[in-house]
Amino acid sequence: MIYLDYQATTPLAPEALAAMLPWFETQHANPHSAHRPGRGAKAAVEVARDQVAALLPKGGRVVFTSGATEALNWAIKGIGPATVVAAATEHAAVLDTVASRASGGTGIVGVDGDGMADPALLDAMFMPRREAQLCAVMLVNNEIGVIQPVAALAEAAHAAGALFLCDAVQGFGRVDIPEAVDLIAVSAHKIHGPKGIGALWIRDGVSLEPLLHGGDQEGGRSGTLSPALCAGFGVAARLMAERREADAAHVGRLWALAIDRLHGWQINGSVAHRYRGNLNVRRDGLDVARLVSDCRDIAFSAGSACASGSGRPSHVLRAIGLSDAQARSSIRLGFGRYTTDDDVRAGLDAIVAAAERQR
């Protein structure tokens, strides 16, 4: 199997697995217990917290969650009655959470044909209100890889009296997160860590109402932490820092190899402002369902894994101006640290050959 679906999830780093195993096999203490084994588990959690925090701005705290979806829900619902503005290309974890709120205003910021949000649009989106306000725009889009101008967007949000939430899941450890943001959601399994754990970074001075009530183990977030998952997340974050330059060079080479094999295909989203481990392309008239069936030994995607099986065309591709037909003829290819040159060559050659057979 050739794996080209890194935006859906990444392979677990061997070092992260090794860090997790002792906590599954022999060290089972609750990290919130006061006895010696519990204190040892707590120490492992705090080491992991520091490793994750090293990739985030200063002046805030890292709160572990079950994943980025919980982190985003907490940030959006915890702000209280508010006007919440989000980009049209946000993940469903943002858009659906915004739509679910019972109180407060809502606004959607459109994007241009490259998928870029315009900071100048934010002033008109926020109504003068006494309640808190929030703007949510992701760092790197999960479907088309576009890197948003988060620093300028955060500045515009602050000028309008709003806090800024950044879904940094796809860019964490790969793309710098501007210091100006107030809330950041990240996930372990997108950086070669384990599934089932993420974090919300909360700037000092920002207050959120709890999403989960119980023991308040994380100071605003309740629930027993898993030292194993925390340790795996921490080591994965450390490796992202240590391997950043090597990973970026490797991804750049894979991008060039992929582009060389996709003559006649159109790239969706900005090429200049893009994380190159994400390649979303289309070929008019392509039957993507048939392509996936014909290339069953290659893992790639027709869109976000979270919307898989919905039957709806991608809201991200529609937001950048593609027709339903164009959106349905698009595929997403994702690669990274453990993808080989041969994976890209063989995978893309097979995909292109299968697409040619449809003509």
Which structural category do the helix and sheet elements fall into?
alpha/beta
If you compute it from the alpha carbons, what radius of gyration comes out, rounded to the nearest whole angstrom? 21 Å
What about the largest sheet?
A: 7 strands, mixed
Low-pLDDT residue spans: none
CATH class of the largest domain: Alpha Beta
Query: Largest sheet, order of strands side by side?
Result: 2-8-7-6-5-3-4
**Superfamily at the CATH H level of the largest domain?**
Type I PLP-dependent aspartate aminotransferase-like (Major domain)
Number of strands: 12
- The proportion of residues in beta strands is 5-15%
Number of domains: 2
- Measure the end-to-end span: 26 Å
**Shape annotation:** globular
Give the % helix: 25-40%
Order of helices and strands: EHHEHEHEHEHEEEHHEEHEHHEH
CATH fold topology of the largest domain: Aspartate Aminotransferase, domain 2
What do these coordinates show?
The protein is α/β, with parallel strands linked by helices. The chain folds into 2 domains: 2-10 and 243-357, Aspartate Aminotransferase, domain 1 (Alpha-Beta Complex), CATH 3.90.1150; 14-241, Aspartate Aminotransferase, domain 2, CATH 3.40.640. Helices cover 36% and strands 15% of the residues. It contains 12 helices and 12 strands. It has helices at 14-25, 36-53, 68-78, 92-100, 122-125, 150-159, 227-242, 244-260, 288-294, 315-319, 324-328, 341-357; strands at 2-3, 60-65, 82-87, 106-109, 132-136, 163-167, 183-187, 198-203, 266-267, 278-282, 298-299, 330-334. A 7-stranded mixed beta sheet has the order 2-8-7-6-5-3-4, sandwiched between helices. A 3-stranded antiparallel beta sheet has the order 9-10-12. The protein has a two-stranded parallel sheet with strand order 1-11. Strand 5 (132-136), helix 6 and strand 6 form a beta-alpha-beta unit. Helix 1 (14-25) runs antiparallel to helix 7 (227-242), helix 3 (68-78) packs parallel to helix 4 (92-100) and helix 8 (244-260) runs parallel beside helix 12 (341-357). It is globular, with a radius of gyration of 21 Å. The chain starts with a strand and ends with a helix. The model has no long low-confidence stretch (mean pLDDT 94).
